[in-house]
Amino acid sequence: METCVRCGAALGVGRFCLNCGHPIGEPAPASAAPVTIAPAPEAPAAPPDPAPDTAPVVMPVQAADPTAVAPATAPLGAPVEPVAAAEPVAAAEPAAQPEPVAAARSSTSTWDPREELLPYEEVDELDVEDPVRGRAWIFWVLGAVLLVGLVFVLLETFGADDDDGTATDPATSASSAPGGESTGGSGEGPDGGSSEPEAEGPRGVGKQVDLARGASFEVPGTAPPTTDFDGNLVAYEPVQMHDGDSSTTWRVEGDATGQTVTITLAEPAVVYRVGLVNGYAKQVAGVDWYPNNRRILAVTWGFEDGTSVEQTFAERPAMELLKVPPVETSTVTITITSVTPPGTGNLGRDYTAISEVAISGRRAG
């Protein structure tokens, strides 16, 4: 018969000792105190037998043993046979205790951080694998550069002179930036030579230049000088039509329709383009003098060989150029054919003005 290694009690059915609860098959713990089987309680003494020559003898019986029987009475002085100790009765098997969770986990699998921290790991991986995050600014920069390039191309396209126009089409006039400076309508190529298309007639020699700079101007009249708001004297002489400054002007009193300005070139030349700033293009102290004077709306350009071309103007204070057929000449005339009414208001003036004249061509061969 097997006994418990911890308490020495007989083992019954089940996985644990019915007396101390020690698991069957496990070694005895080293620090466990010895467990002894408690003796069965003595049964109460039976009342004395009325027979004078016998006395009842009661043997101890295990209380937990249902099969134990009371001993028979024996005569006094008779030997008593010892009664074997009753085996312990098997108690009800205790309920199986569940194994600790930590122990079960350690015995079956290891802890995997990828499974426990999956939501956080997924967020981090999305940030790392995102191919656009942190680089989107490159596309914005490229788009801005392309947009700026497109603007420059459009400005060059619409700001260039129309080389296909003819002198008989006044609508082909092109203007420069405000301030009286020509926008490059002189027709010079990259090497300083002419970029004009081949045409019949004189061509001239040398570089194409502004012939008005060295010319002399004869005018029908000149308005007297005035004093500006600062007390400075302002003159309106003919030389101010070719000084390169559109804020200075030549002007004559009243409506100059039908009057002619004669320009004598420094030497005979072949003329390709002509133009002028058709009013007083001066702005000072918050006052714009262009609408306060008469503006020229149309002129006729005449040349020494008797040819002429007409040019009309938009009302803006800028150089407006017109391409003409190449013509060799020593003089150029400007006949004013149409002007606006005088300016209105307190600052309105009844003067016809030309701020700048441009004549582009080459020295005659």
Describe the overall structure.
The chain has 365 residues and is α+β, with helices and mostly antiparallel strands. The protein has 2 domains: 1-39 and 89-111, no CATH class; 161-363, Jelly Rolls. The protein has 4 helices and 16 strands. Strands 3, 4, 5, 9, 12, 13, 14 and 16 form an 8-stranded antiparallel sheet that branches. A two-stranded antiparallel ribbon has the order 1-2. A two-stranded antiparallel sheet has the order 6-7. The longest helix is centred in the middle third of the chain and has 24 residues, at 136-159. The model is unreliable at 48-80, 82-86, 88-94, 100-107, 120-128 and 160-198 (pLDDT under 50).
